Amino acid sequence: MSAAGALELASGRRGRPLATYGAWLAAAVALGLLPRLFSSGFALTTMSLMGVMIVFTLSYNMLLGQTGLLSFGHAVFFGLGGFFTVHMMNVVEGDGAPLPLFLFPLVGAAAGLVFGVIFGAVSTRRAGTAFAMITLGIAELVSSSALILRRFFGGEAGVTTDRTGLVHLFGVTFGPQIQVYYLIASWCFVSAAAMYALTRTPFGRICNAVRDNPERARFIGYNTQTVRFIAFSLAGLFAGVAGGLAAINFEIMNSAQLGAAQSGAVILMAYIGGVGGFVGPIIGAILVTYLQATLSDLTDVWQLYFGLLFIGMVMFAPEGVAGLLARQQPLLQARQLHRVVPFYLLALLPGLAAAAGLSMMIEMTNQLTGHAPDGPAMVFLYAPFNANAVLPWLIAVVLFLAGTWLFLRAARLASAAYDEALATARMRKSAL
Amino acid sequence: MVEIVFISTLNGVLYGMLLFLMASGLTVIFSMMGVLNFAHASFYMLGAFFGFAISRHVGFWPGLVIAPLLVGGIGMAVERYGLRRVHRHGHVAELLFTFGLTFVIQQLVEMAWGKLPVDYRVPPSLDFPAFTVFSTNYPTFKIFELLISVAIFAALLLAVKRTRIGLIVQAALSHPDMVGMLGHNVDGVFMLVFGVGAGLAAIAGVIAGPALVTQSNMAELLGPILFVVVVVGGLGSLSGAFAASLLIGLVQTFAVASNASLASAFGSLVSQRAQAYLGDIWNVTVAQIAPILPYLLLVLILIFRPRGLIGARDS
Amino acid sequence: MRTTFAATALALSVFGAAAMPAAAEDALKIAYIDPLSGGGASIGQIGLNQLKFIADAVNAKGGVMGKKVEIAAYDNKLNPQQSLVDVQKAIDDGIRIITQGNGSSVALAIEDFVAKYNERNPGKEVIYLNYAAIDPALTNEKCSYWHFAWDANVGVKLQALTNFIKAKKDIKKVYLIDQDYSFGHSVADTAVRMLKEKRPDIAIVGNEFHPLVKVTDFSPYIAKIKASGADTVITGNWGQDFALLIKAAGDAGLKVDWYTFYAGGAGGPTAVKQANMPDQVFQITEGVNNIDYKPAQDVIRAYFAHYPNAPVYYPRLFNETGMLFKAIEEAKSDDPVKIAVKLEGMKYPTFSSGDEGFMRKDDHQFFQPLYISTLGPLAANQPFDEEHTGWGWKVVAQILVQDTILPTSCKMKRPQ
Questions:
Q1: For labeling, which of A22, A170, C294, C377 is most exposed (least CB within 10 Å)?
Q2: B228, A137: Cβ pair inside 8 Å?
């Protein structure tokens, strides 16, 4: 039930409301239970960060996915939201006003909205490439100013705060990470629900229309500039919430948070997850946050893998992970999925072999170049060998070439099986 | 005063021409294919490192020819096997493809040449002061940079406006099907254009490498300044990019020479307390923000004159 | 559908790279949190090389208290928030000694995090050893009991440098150029204040700031320096901002003396050599390779035998680890609480010269002799060049420990 609901969300189609509610309910339960499954400090920190990034990426997708606006400066609102939250926390702590911590993301929201309105008024006068370039310019201006205006942005050190210094309700201090996780999870759930609801409103539909065919939207009487402006401001609001949550999570804000790297990261998250539906950005935020946190522990050339993964996604799966899942939905509904799964597995095996071969070549090259002083001895997938020996190279090349070749053949078979199953599914549907 | 104006103008022109040298390939690709190539700086970096590697074995001058050819070839391969596939998913996908490419190229360069800057030197034949004004030397290499930049501008202008292939490229941009039906190989034309763009980036790399710092993060550090050149000049306009380069070079250089700030301009009009309240903004000098001015220019141009300086069409 | 699989395979290739050596039980683990990818990687890698070299040397002699020293590296991408995630990761991996150096933004974030963590998790304390971040705030207004700093902070370095300038009567006009962020301002403000105090006759003819790593062409700045008639420039610039500045000066033929913090950083010597400025660029550090002190030179030789292409850039890492190991052996425990007690006030013969330095109890700042050195062609008794340029650092002056001492505003909160 919930899987079907999730897929429906993924495809962004209006479906059975029961399934949709089921999916949301399942998500809420999952959010509540996750800390029981993963309870280490790192897991809690990472999951909290994922929650922040989900809100941030969803807010970005209000622009890219829903309204068709490519922004290079979304972190500006994330960062400003965070800075205002931190400052407000410090002011309230000094004042002793009885405001509990969980209200403070609202400060971020307000800051995000205000700056969304200001910068939106400037940038949304254009669409397309011009819009993208204006956001790029604004992002550069803001992040450069952040280093110069040291009083507000705290210079290189940034601004720190203490989340436990505020009034405690019901004995919750927000010292332990688990309490912060629940705070972020609640805000993540509420924000996601709000943004989802927004896509169901007439305004959400108009955004889609502006994305798909601005000319026609104009003809039926909508001012596309106004639509872009509202979408931009609201996206700023939710990015501000995410920034406020980040501030609470890390208890520090600094100029890196509104820089180009952060703006780039949110584009990657949205795109890898899939910008076409609502679930895509969520998947992307979780996946990319996880990769960013762990990939660099596995290999020090992680950027190469990251780049290859991203290029692969753009080339072969431009609908993102969510898009791939959504394609299986009609099969699932018509109970045809069992016909294709064996082919998927058949292709997966050589695919993994090819990937291992490629990865092995990369790691061996790195051992011989980047790690030259450490000698050629290395360990790959628990197997120790010398990177300058012939045999490992031979194995890697064979794995890669044979794996690729077999994979392509199996993929062709799987593709045919998919088409066939899809045809059956359609037939059944029309027969109903 | 004369000294400052003269030196600043000279420095501004030299810097502007360096900018155009670096941005010319980006303009070519953008104006002819509509692709915002985020990997442009990476091709530039590849050019610098290839130039460095070749210069160590056979010297700087062969590097100036071979490195751009190699990088141009890589660019064509990227277009043929990557970008062309992505093309049907739209411009955003193309842009993100080149974005992903920057990670890959940076890491490969790091694996090949390490993370430390390499010692890429100006060739001895150009390593002497060309002339001295107001006791400031101007190295021959900078003049060489300027000449190459102007030569590239002239060559590109001629190629686009006067040659058959230039006409086909222009036609292929607006009416690819028609051009294809007339028997021209449209795919081949695009591949060539991308190769030329990458090759131009590499020429800039070979030349700017010794003058600046050749390091595996040089692409990242260059930042989005080249986009500013292309957009301010007007999308799709070579002359526009040329003019924008000069403008940005001059604006930035003259701004550095100025020590004006809000405090110095209005200091007498505003009370001390208000000044303290305004804090950092109040005391920032024009010189301090000079390198950020191009981005301000970018935003203003796009709002008030989206065609850019000399652009033919709205961006 | 085929495309689907290609994408999946690519995604999986990411996970295929499991190549981590398994960690030994009961080792003395030190978490190294610094940039190992992206722009800051060049210096982050140098620090890691040195730390691994130190660990190997100690392990060859039987380790510390019989335990092997293990360095666990975490790539923080020079991002403060990522660094906090990494600290958490290290703590999960059972590591309680953390070292970091690059970027004061990162250092301040970690210092703050560790203090809060230790307060909220008594019994699981973590200690933070800082080998390179030199924002004075770290050991002044934001000082923490759990933080120890081995590099001289901006104030201390400038105290030493201005004490040196005090005696150099040929310096008449000084120009300051710095990156426009807190570190640059801290260099400029402190230098101006101290120069006015010690040499009121020196004219400060310029105090320039430029945005961080945004400048490609420094010639306008050089023109300004030239127009000011300065004979000496003081700069805190590092990385590309230093290399481009010095190369632009070389191009324009500007003849001044440069007093720098980071001329020895990755790419610095190469740039100075390319600019052809022998003996015009000075740096202030806690040591250079060509100090005539045999124990240090033997270690440096062994290091170059292993890492021929990486400079010995952090003599202080030898001091840091040496003092850490000494503290562990004196405390007979690797519990951070006990280590911290031993480190406070510890006296230690420094790596570069054997002269004694000490860890001041009031602010956990290590005070040590500092050296002003200049880069240029080497004499016969100076064996080490930098970055294969043929030029090396030669000591011009040693600043004694007592001439580097500066009061602190730190009000240390000590645990009960």
A1: A170
A2: yes
A40 and A76, same structural domain? Answer: yes
Q: What separation, in Å, do the N-terminal and C-terminal C-alpha atoms of chain B show?
A: 40
Judged by CB atoms closer than 8 Å, whether chains meet at A151 and B227 is answered as no
* Cα dihedral across residues C274, C279, C281, C282: positive or negative: positive
Residues of A in contact with B227 (CB under 8 A): 133, 136
Of C265, C29, C329, C14, the residue nearest C134 (C-alpha)? C265
* Domain membership flag for residue A35: yes
For C359, the token pair is: 């860890």
Tell me the pTM.
0.89
Same domain? A57 vs A201:
yes
**Burial of A68: CB neighbours in 10 Å, binned 0-12, 13-18, 19+:** buried
Do residues A116 and A253 both lie within one domain?
Answer: yes
Question: Given A318, A353, A388, which residue is the final one in a domain?
Answer: A318
> Which residue of chain C is at minimal alpha-carbon distance from B142?
C251
Based on the fold, state whether residues A280 and A411 are members of the same structural domain: no
Is residue A297 helix, strand or coil?
Answer: helix
Domain total of chain A: 2
* Chain C residues closer than 8 Å to B137 by CB: 251-253
User: Which residues in chain C have their CB less than 8 angstroms from residue A46's CB?
Assistant: 85
In a domain, A328, yes or no: no
Q: Checking phi first, is residue B305 left (phi over 0); if not, alpha (psi -120 to 50) or beta?
A: beta
Task: Note down pLDDT in tens along chain A; length 432 residues.
Answer: 334 444 444 444 455 677 788 888 888 888 888 888 888 888 888 899 999 999 999 999 999 988 989 999 999 999 999 999 999 999 888 877 778 888 899 999 999 999 999 999 988 888 888 888 889 999 989 988 888 787 888 877 788 888 887 777 777 778 788 889 999 999 999 999 999 999 889 999 889 888 888 888 888 888 888 999 999 999 999 999 999 999 999 888 988 888 888 999 999 899 899 888 899 999 999 999 998 888 888 888 888 998 998 898 888 888 888 888 888 888 888 888 888 888 888 888 999 999 999 999 999 998 888 788 788 888 888 888 888 889 999 999 999 999 999 998 998 888 888 888 888 888 877 766
Interatomic CA distance for residues B204 and B197, integer angstroms: 11
Q: What is the pLDDT of residues B8-54, one digit of tens each?
A: 898 899 999 999 999 999 988 888 887 889 999 999 999 999 999 99
Identify whether A308 is part of a domain.
Answer: yes
Half-sphere exposure of residue C12, counting CA atoms within 13 Å on the CB side?
A: 17
Mention every residue, 6+ apart, whose C-beta is less than 8 A from residue A82: A108, A243, A244, A246, A247, A253, A257
**Is A327 part of a structural domain of the chain?**
no
Q: Please tell me whether residues A286 and A193 are part of one structural domain.
A: yes
Structure tokens at B131: 């002339």
Going from N- to C-terminal start, the domains of chain B cover 2-216
Structure tokens at A228: 């872009």
pLDDT for B140-156, tens place per residue?
888 999 999 999 999 99
Chain B nearest C-alpha distance from A168 (Å) = 34
- Domain limits for position A422: 334-431
| A218 lies in the same domain as A137 | yes
Q: Are residues A285 and A400 in the same domain?
A: no
Rounded to whole angstroms, the Cα distance separating C51 from C317 reads: 7
Cα C224 to Cα C230: distance, rounded to the nearest angstrom:
10
Residues A226 and A77 in one domain: yes
- Residue C39 to residue B221, Cβ atoms within 8 A: yes
